Amino acid sequence: MKRTLSLVTLALWVFSHSSISQANDAEAGKNWSLFYEYHKNGDFVTAAPYGWKVIKLAPARFKTIYSRLAECYYNFYQQADDSTRTAYADTIIAIYDMGIQNIPERAAGLWLSRGYALANYYDRDLEAIGSYEKALQEDSTTDFAYFDQLGVLYVKHMEENPEFREKAIALYHNQRERDPNNPQIVARLNNLISDPQELIDLALKDLESDPENIEKIWNVAQAYIKAEQYGGAEKYLKDLIQKAPKTATYWNEIGKVQQRESKYRQAIDSYEQALKLNPALKENYLNITVCYRMMKNYTSARTTAHRAAQKEKGWGRPYMEIAEVYKSAVENCIKDVKGGDWAQLDIDGKLVYRLAQLLYEKAKSVEPSLANEANQRIRELSTLVPTREDLFFHKDRIVNGMMSVGGECYGWIDEKVPVSL
Q1: CA-CA distances (angstroms) from residue 241 to 252, 257, 271, 395?
Q2: CA 119 to CA 111: how far, in whole Å?
Q3: Is the entire prediction scored with pTM above 0.90?
Q4: Is residue 142 in some structural domain?
Q5: Which of 61, 100, 294, 347 is packed most tightly, with the most Cβ within 10 A?
Q6: What is the pLDDT of residues 267-292, one digit of tens each?
């Protein structure tokens, strides 16, 4: 008999508890619906009390209640005066804390929001750093912008907390592995590491963990380039080319390095190989032009620049480079043939300078954006071109308003220059 009564009592208790739970669920659902509608319509004052009722009745049921309720209080925060803002900010932090406790699967996002609030609504950066760190530890796939917010806080406080510098470097270094082409990450690292050798050491240390990783080898090469240690860069770029010989980027980069090392013939070969793999690398024609010019192979330099000019309408830079070839030819003649005596700049040298001016004019007519640069270079040559007196003394060479370029240094030019007395 006693056992029967006990079972009945237990059944009544279970039924009663179940009814209460169902009632709470129903009430929570009703309050959620009201909260959601008012929140959606921007009526945050009306929405907020319903949000608190939802949390009281079913703290883990509605996954977005905490972030949405925090939005209500952020609206209050924005509209409040300075005397009440802190109270609203405190409430926002408390809401995030409750969400982290009650909905652990959403904790990463709530930690991020908590960190943002601490950094922007208070002057509590160190607490914000802790929140960001917890968030990013829980979800390493978070968007870079959040990692960057943490990195910026590290940098801001690394003077009083020296360990933050190493944390910032590690953070951006890891992000560079995720997105090696992000220029902001590279810029952040460059600002953090002022000593180029340190950047090399860091890249080499990273490479030790995975010696065959192409991205890490590339990073080492770039570190050497930044340090202007081009021999080291060339070594690792050759390694990349050996691993991926059909990658135009590697050939292009090693060409630049070889050019900086004054290995002009090798640089030309590298640039040409890059062009074979990717004909769109039109700037390589100009790089090759410069290499030939530095080798004093002016004929090949001019020919290459003319090829470049045919690649794209509206591209004036090749004409600028031909002008530079002509200028270099005159300077080389004065230095190597005239013994460095500029008083021996003759009519032919002056005609070549005039040709250079005309090419600058053509460059800006083809590509107007070059006008300022071209005009500056034209002015620089204004005292080196033939004067009326020069033309008068050589008028026997003027035929139909044109004068042919001659002389021992300039026979290869084979051009006529328009002149007038």
Answers
A1: 10, 14, 13, 58
A2: 12
A3: no
A4: no
A5: 100
A6: 999 999 999 999 999 999 999 999 99
